[in-house]
Design goal:
- This protein has 1490 residues and is an all-alpha fold.
- It is built from 65 helices and no strands.
- α19 packs antiparallel against α32 and α39 packs parallel to α41.
- The longest helix has 40 residues.
- The N and C termini lie far apart (191 Å).
- The relative contact order is 0.03.
């Protein structure tokens, strides 16, 4: 046969016209079945290879499968290495040939390959393929061949594939061979149908071969075949099951091959195998990685595979997107990182019982995987940046394009994407998933608490039906916890149980499948009462759905309990004696309404339970925990048994779950967004940081800490890129701590610490724009490094030179000797050449670090606006800590701040102003330090920076200079050290002398500093400050008026009001006048706003001088104020005047007067008195503008003056009132007259001395009380007299003063231009009423002798008080006004009333004179006599008609008066003239006056 086979092989090989047939192939295969010698086996293999791989071969599927099966059997059955090698090579070539032919067929079917849009339905289509059971019989085999059940099964596959649609023979052959390989890789020892060669397949090398061939097949898979639904379906239903079983094998070769196949599937088919990858990855490989029972070799192989996964950015991000962000999937990425973190930290290697070397390898590989993940995430960021750059470069290219950030990286079109990467909805799902997982974890530990949490979060309704649906639909719940909840006795739990069972439909189901279905949803609780409640409800539900099966529900209830007992008895290893079938049938007699159930029915139940116990359905909650002791793990054999037990438990639950999940449609998303990395890092950064930190802190191996440092770089880059403050800060802080520079002790620098420092500095350079608050730790390390080596950065600190560093790598001997160890070099103890050599080594180590440090500060110029602001903020924070906490304080960082300021001063003003806000605040604190060295350095640095900044100049209306120079002002105000303040004054002088032309808003700060200097106790310093001010006034006044008028005036004010500066204060007055002239000139040229920028600040300054200075300076200031108003008031608007008088009126404000009584009195009698007349004259000068808005307020202030108790002020106020009215009476409007009259009346009423009438002596009279009363009363009496004179001046052209001796009246004065003609009768009448009221009060007081004597006795007055002047003057003015009205032809309407009043007064006066002639009171006689003389003179001026009317009324009293002895010559003359007039009027003309 060997020769025949050899000839047949050569014929097919050399004669292309001969095509192998199916019979030939079967014949060749049968040859091996008859004789299995080594030569024959080799020849059969060669012949089959030639027949199948022939280019013209058109073999059917059956012949191809038979040939492939025979070669596989030869490999398995043969013990010869050469035969196995030939068989293996033949299988590989046949498989490659089939796949190559599919590639050739690709050209024919290329147009049929689905597009990316059609790929979305591929998973759903693959899931619809029916199961592998069919009724068709296998195709008949040629005679002489033995039938194979595998081939019969594959025949069913062929028919199934043909039913789905036409498939070319080449593709069909490849598909069937692939399925055959999947089936050959299974473990089917327990299946009785496998006989003969099938039993040999169970040998490890046969399974290894099938897995190797599967690996080859997947590697040669064409694109068309890889998306072909039947091929994908074969992977899902067969290959994944094979991986599930072989992935738990203890054989490392099988495990490695399974792992390799899984990696291929993950890389090329993950879009179709989403649920399968989840189950295999999580429940097989990660489970093995986590299990303490798995071997080191298994873990090592998994880590090697994970290393390739972790190094693929697309795969890592896809795993997170499709599993961690999918509600229906378990987390894979987070779990993967967690497992790797545990390995890297060495938590499991000790439990494994591994050798130290193996433990070290596990840690290192786990750490390398973590670094690879971080590197992949960083690489993903870079790829997204490149994609974004390419997309933006198409539209525009700009050298100043902004840096790429997560906000600018958008999603771009990608035709190869399988599903749209919707970040927003994905983020929502991820957060929801986190909440759901939290609730599920709570449920799996405490069901009631878990339900309550879900209901509170709105994830679950409170009704029992909603809870039941949740328990049935959520496969992540612990089945045991579901059973505990359903069996609970509480009412709510019972409602849930009832709804749970009612949700199940048992219609048409046999009893045992229905029970299995029911118990598959949960695990029965251990308590009998709980089981009883569940079985009772199940029986009721089953009977309700199937009433024709049992007589009543009790039958189902008893049988269900019996089945549960049977399952426990048969499958519990602790039960030695198992229940027999007869015992089971006997136990269930008479349960169906006293009748027996059919024996066949019960026996079938027994057989089914014996074959397979009752199991819960598979779910994603997989409890593979097993109990073991620590000693068991140290024994390899025991550990292998534990591993096998754990994996069997996992496979038992996963097989069903895999089939169920394979049929469910799934959607795979190809990640495209850079933001996914942020979510990934946010969820896992703590694991990364803990693992890296532990590894770095415990290792001395250079490769290990290099991995750690690389991981730190990637982690920090991710945190910086996405602005993750917490994550970035934790990573940078940890890295900084590993430099040992943050420790309080002197740092001990090793090679590892130097590497950490270099890494930290490289991070500072690379991520400078994104470090934000993390700059603090970096800067702190730099500061501590400088502190450890004083001369390194040319610091001013003087400390002992201490150095602890590692030797340079150039010294190979020292490097080998001290590798990974600390080298402590105390240079202070070295001497001679050794010291020089140490210094040389130190310089070679430290110079690159020094250069890197300097670059950090010099490159701050290249930072973005926000980045430099945060950098400066952290520099200032560290500098503040150095200045406050160090002993002695250090200025290193303060020096660096000055350098950074110099570097960045040329930035745009918007950025620089934000930077200086931070720097200026820090200079404020530094300049106020108690240590003068620091303060002087801060001030000197400010001076240098200011000079450079002022050189740039400033445009008008900006305030950058003001902000920059503000620290001088702050330090001047808060630092009491004379040396510091003197230096600041020198700086101001420096600025004025050298940068005056560039100063704009900076003048404000200079004047503020000079203002503070005015209050210095050192007069030399004050003089120096005033010299600067004088220089500015003389040379730069014009520039100041434009920008800093207010500050200039405030400074001038301070020099005025500062104590002990009388000479300087008086020198400022001419400056004010010069400034006013400059303001006037500028306002004429429209170069400034005349009021806001000029006059108002000036007037306010003068007002403050008046309010705060001594009396001499106040008076001078008031005079200057009103001089300026007289000179320049014409340019003021009405509103300006209103504002100005609002300021003036503050002089008459009680709240602004001095608190002390004596000072208040001086103020009232001097300042207020001096201010009244200029104010009145100003109002008069600009009456048309000022009267409407100001008159009322001015009158109010005049009344205020009357009420202050000062006679001088009151007299001045009344005179101002009188002069104001008389000078402006022609311009007064009716409304103004009303104001004036009402105010006069109010003045009369408020100053009426009622205290005199109401005075009652206190029980314990104090001298001071009487004295105070007398002053108040006397002032009011004086005010009343002044008011009467004012009314007289207003209403009468001249005063009618009568001498006290009876001398004739004084000659009439020229008219004063009285306001009588401008007053209406109403207002005149009102004034007459108040005159009468004043007269009546005086008259009543004079008549009250008892009250007057009481005042005298109380010591209020030295003599008996009286108000005769008031009484006399008020009545005299009253009479004079009545007479004028009586003579005024324009007021004839009130003549009658005036006449009656005059007659009444005349009669009373005559009668009073008659009565008083007999008294000895000369004063009383003069009062009545004067009034009578006034009346008689007025009567003499009246016309005849009025004269006759009056004489007719009091002729007889006049005759009676004439009969008396009249001593007053004026009265005698007046009476004589009256009687002469009577003679002329009556006697000469006839008639009589009576």
């Amino acid at each position: 046969m060997v020769e025949a086979l050899d000839c047949l092989q050569k014929i097919f090989a050399w004669n292309s016209s001969l095509i192998p047939t199916e019979d030939v192939v079967y014949t060749i295969c049968d040859c091996w079945l008859e004789e299995r010698t080594e030569p024959l086996s080799l020849q059969v293999v060669k012949a089959l290879l030639t027949a199948v791989t022939c280019a013209q071969s058109q073999l059917t599927s059956g012949s191809v499968l038979r040939a492939f099966q025979t070669c596989f059997d030869i490999f398995v059955a043969s013990k010869s290495a050469s035969v196995q090698t030939a068989a293996k090579a033949t299988l590989t070539q046949i498989l490659s040939s089939l796949l190559d032919k599919v590639k050739i067929e690709d050209k024919l079917v290329e147009s049929k390959i689905p597009t990316s849009s059609e790929l979305k339905d591929l998973n759903a289509d693959a899931g619809e393929i029916p199961e592998e059971a069919g009724a068709s019989s296998p195709s008949p085999a040629p005679s002489g061949s033995s039938g194979f059940s595998i081939l019969a099964c594959l025949s069913q596959w062929e028919q199934e594939l043909q039913c789905r649609g036409p498939v070319d023979q080449t593709t069909l052959n490849a598909l069937l061979v692939f399925r055959l390989l999947c089936l050959l890789s299974f473990n089917h020892v327990q299946d009785a149908q496998w006989t003969g060669s099938e039993a040999k397949m169970q040998q490890p090398h046969g399974k290894i071969l099938s897995l190797e061939l599967l690996l080859v097949a997947l590697g040669h898979c064409t694109p068309a075949l890889s998306i072909f639904p039947p091929f994908v379906d074969s992977i899902k239903k067969h290959l994944c099951i094979s991986l599930l079983r072989n992935g738990t094998s203890q054989n490392t070769f099988i495990f490695k091959l399974s792992l390799s196949i899984f990696m291929l599937l993950l890389g090329n088919f993950r879009r179709f195998l989403k649920p399968q990858i989840e189950i295999i990855f999580k429940n097989v490989f990660l489970l093995i990685l986590e299990s303490p029972t798995s071997s080191f070799r298994h873990k090592w192989l998994i880590l090697q595979a994970l290393a390739s996964i972790c190094g693929d950015p697309q795969m890592i991000v896809d795993l997170h997107v499709n599993y961690d962000c999918d509600l229906s999937m378990d987390n894979i990425f987070i779990r993967l990182v967690g497992d790797l973190g545990k390995l890297a930290q060495g938590r499991q290697s000790s439990e494994l019982g591994a050798t130290p070397r193996e433990e070290k390898d596990l840690k290192f590989t786990g750490l390398a995987c973590l670094k690879a993940i971080l590197g992949s995430m960083s690489e993903w960021i870079r790829l997204c940046e490149e994609k974004y750059s390419e997309s933006t470069a198409v539209t525009s290219v700009s050298e100043t394009a902004p840096a790429v950030t997560p906000c600018t990286l958008k999603k771009h079109d990608d035709h190869e994407h399988f599903t749209v990467d919707d970040l927003e909805s994905m983020e929502t799902r991820r957060k929801t998933k986190e909440l759901i997982e939290r609730c599920i974890r709570e449920f799996n530990s405490s069901p009631k608490e878990g339900l309550r949490l879900m209901q509170n979060k709105g994830l679950l309704g409170e009704d029992a039906c909603s809870v039941a649906r949740f328990l049935l639909g959520e496969d992540r719940l612990d089945k045991a916890m579901i059973g505990e909840l359903l069996g609970d006795h509480e009412d709510y739990c019972r409602e849930i149980m009832l709804a749970f069972v009612d949700s199940l439909d048992f219609s048409g189901m046999d009893f045992l499948p229905a029970l299995r279905h029911f118990l598959g949803n949960f695990r029965l609780p251990g308590e009998a009462q709980k089981i009883d409640r569940l079985m009772e409800k199940f029986a009721a539900r089953y009977y309700e759905n199937n009433r024709d099966v049992f007589a009543h529900a009790d039958t189902a209830y008893v049988l269900a309990f019996s089945v549960i007992i049977l399952a426990t008895d048969l499958h519990n290893k602790n039960v030695k004696r198992k229940m027999t079938k007869d015992e089971f049938v006997r136990n269930n007699r008479g349960i169906n309404d006293q009748k027996d159930l059919p024996r066949d029915f019960l026996e079938n139940i027994y057989d089914s339970i014996a074959a397979e116990g009752i199991r819960t359905k598979g779910g994603r909650f997989l409890d593979t925990r097993i109990t073991y002791s620590a000693s068991e793990l140290t024994n390899e054999k025991t550990r292998n048994l534990l591993y096998r037990k754990q994996m069997e438990r996992a496979l038992e639950a996963l097989s069903d779950t895999l089939l169920e999940r394979s049929q469910a449609p799934s959607e795979f998303i190809t990640a495209t967004r850079v933001e996914h990395v942020k979510v990934m890092f946010s969820a896992t950064w703590a694991v990364f940081l803990a693992s890296i930190s532990i590894a770095l802190s415990t290792t001395a191996h250079k490769n290990t800490w290099k991995l750690c440092l690389g991981s730190f770089k990637s982690a920090i880059h991710i945190g910086c890129f996405f602005g993750m403050e917490l994550e970035r800060g934790a990573c940078v802080s940890s890295l900084a701590k590993f430099t040992t520079l943050l420790s309080s002790d002197t740092p001990l620098m090793e090679e590892k610490q130097f590497a950490c420092l270099i890494t930290l500095l490289s991070v500072a350079h690379r991520e400078a724009n994104f470090l934000e608050s993390s700059w603090y730790d970096i800067l702190w390390c730099i500061s501590r490094l400088e502190c450890a080596q004083p001369g390194l950065f040319k610091s001013h600190d003087s400390r002992e030179k201490l150095l602890r560093v590692g030797r340079s790598a150039s010294n190979s001997q020292m490097t080998r000797k001290h590798s990974g160890k600390s080298v402590n070099l105390l240079f202070s103890h070295a001497s001679g050449k050794e010291e020089d050599l140490n210094e040389l080594h130190w310089q070679s180590v430290i110079q690159p670090i020094q250069f890197s440090v300097e670059r950090i500060f010099s490159n701050s110029l290249n930072l973005t606006g926000d980045a430099i602001l945060e950098f400066v903020r952290q520099c200032c924070a560290l500098s503040a800590e150095e200045l406050q906490s160090s002993c002695p304080p250090r200025m290193y960082m303060l020096q660096k701040i000055v350098e950074v300021s110099h570097y960045n001063m040329d930035r745009i003003r918007l950025e620089w102003s934000r930077i200086w806000t931070v720097l200026g605040s820090h200079f404020n604190k530094a300049g106020c330090m108690l240590d003068q060295t620091i303060a002087l350095f801060a001030v000197d640095s400010l001076r240098q920076l200011s000079m450079k900044f002022l050189e740039r100049g400033e445009f008008a209306h900006f305030h950058f200079q003001k902000d920059f120079l503000r620290p001088f002002e702050y330090i001047m105000a808060n630092n009491e050290e004379e040396k510091i303040r003197d230096m600041i004054i020198c700086c101001m002088s420096h600025f004025v002398q050298l940068q005056a032309n560039n100063l704009k808003s900076g003048w404000k700060n200079i004047f503020c500093v000079l203002s503070l200097a005015a209050w210095e106790r050192n007069h030399d310093l004050v003089s120096a400050a005033f010299d600067i001010f004088r220089h500015v006034h003389q040379h730069h006044l014009a520039a100041i008026c434009k920008s800093s008028a207010v500050e200039y005036l405030n400074c001038l004010l301070e020099f005025c009001v500062a104590p002990g500066l009388d000479k300087i204060s008086m020198e400022t007055m001419p400056m004010i006048q010069a400034y006013a002239l400059e303001v006037h000139q500028k306002s004429k040229d429209n170069r400034i706003s005349p009021w806001i920028d000029g006059w108002l600040p000036l007037m306010l300054t003068l007002h403050r001088i008046v309010m705060r200075c001594s009396i001499d300076l106040r008076t001078r200031a008031l005079n200057i104020t009103f001089e300026l108003l007289r000179a320049y008031g014409d340019c003021f608007t009405q509103q300006n005047w209103v504002d100005l008088f609002h300021v003036f009126f503050r002089l008459f404000d009680d709240q602004r007067l001095p608190a002390a009584f004596d000072e208040k009195k001086v103020w009232v009698e001097t300042t207020c008195t001096v201010a009244l007349f200029p104010m009145m004259e100003t109002i008069t000068q600009h009456f048309a503008i000022l009267a409407p808005p100001v008159l009322g307020s001015f009158l109010e202030r005049l009344q205020w003056c009357l009420e202050k108790g000062s006679g001088l002020l009151a007299t001045s106020a009344v005179q101002c009132l009188s002069m104001l009215v008389l000078r402006n009476c022609g311009a007064l409007q009716p409304a103004m007259w009303e104001l004036i009259v009402r105010r006069i009346i109010s003045m009369f009423e408020t100053t009426m001395p009622h205290e005199l009438m109401n005075f009652r002596p206190p029980e314990a009279t104090a001298e001071g009380a009487g004295h105070t009363l007398s002053e108040c009363a006397l002032v009011k009496c004086v005010v009343q007299l002044e008011l009467l004179h004012a009314v007289e001046d207003i209403l009468l052209p001249q005063r009618f003063d009568l001498p006290t001796n009876e001398a004739p009246s004084r000659s009439e004065c020229p008219s004063r231009g009285s306001a009588y003609e401008y007053l209406s009768t109403e207002y005149v009448t009102a004034l007459l009423q108040i005159l009468l009221k004043s007269h009546n009060f005086a008259e009543s007081f004079n008549a009250n002798l008892q009250q007057r004597q009481l005042l005298l006795k109380a010591g209020c007055l030295k003599k008996l008080p009286h108000l005769l002047k008031q009484e006399k003057l008020s009545q005299r003015v009253y009479i004079a006004v009545l007479l004028r009205i009586y003579e005024d032809h324009s007021r004839q309407d009130v003549w009658g009333s005036a006449e009656e009043q005059l007659i009444s007064i005349a009669v009373d006066a005559i009668n009073t004179c008659i009565e008083e002639q007999s008294t000895s009171n000369e004063r009383a006689r003069s009062t009545s006599t004067g009034n009578l003389i006034l009346l008689l003179r007025g009567l003499l001026r009246s016309p005849s008609e009025k004269f006759r009317t009056h004489i007719a009324r009091y002729y007889r009293p006049l005759v009676s008066l004439l009969c008396l002895e009249i001593k007053n010559s004026t009265l005698r003359c007046a009476l004589g003239e009256i009687f002469l007039r009577i003679t002329r009027e009556y006697i000469c003309t006839g008639g009589a006056p009576f």
